[in-house]
Write a structure and sequence with these properties.
Elements: H1 2-6, H2 11-25, E1 34-44, H3 48-60, E2 65-72, E3 77-87, H4 88-99, E4 104-112, H5 121-137
Antiparallel strand pairs: 1-3, 1-4, 2-3
Length: about 140
């Protein structure tokens, strides 16, 4: 049924996709590695205070939050997607802080070990060092 729903040619592609998702969710770096990914939030936006609180949290993680996209949903709800990159520990701290905003109803972090090109001069050396270590391991 899942193969048909996703329009995949066979079960092996489905199994490969499920394995890739599971591997991405496992913290193989012991929390020290750098990851890129997205944080998807759904929250009640019935007042400007909620968006202000979320913006305040994001500003505390300015090195990790690359960009954000916001759309209004039905019934005073909003959906926001953050493009993020940073250490697993910092990304988890960001998620914990965002979950602490009262109106947040859902939050999901999805990461990959593939990195964005260096974005900030002050973070570039750290990211390049991580890439060099990975290349040496291959």
């Amino acid at each position: 049924q899942m193969v048909a729903e996703r329009g995949l040619p066979g079960r092996s592609q489905l199994i490969a996709e499920l394995i890739r998702h599971e591997v991405a969710d496992v913290d193989r770096d012991g929390g020290d590695g750098v990851r890129a990914g997205t944080i998807t939030l759904i929250y009640r936006a019935d007042s400007g205070r909620v968006r202000h609180a979320l913006a305040r949290v994001q500003s505390e993680f300015v090195k990790e939050v690359i960009s954000s996209q916001h759309v209004f949903l039905e019934d005073d709800q909003s959906l926001e997607v953050l493009l993020v990159q940073g250490s697993v520990e910092r990304l988890q701290q960001l998620c914990d802080r965002l979950r602490g905003v009262r109106a947040v109803q859902q939050l999901k972090l999805v990461t990959t070990t593939s990195l964005l090109p260096p974005l900030h001069a002050h973070g570039g050396a750290e990211i390049e060092e991580t890439r060099a270590v990975r290349r040496a391991a291959l």
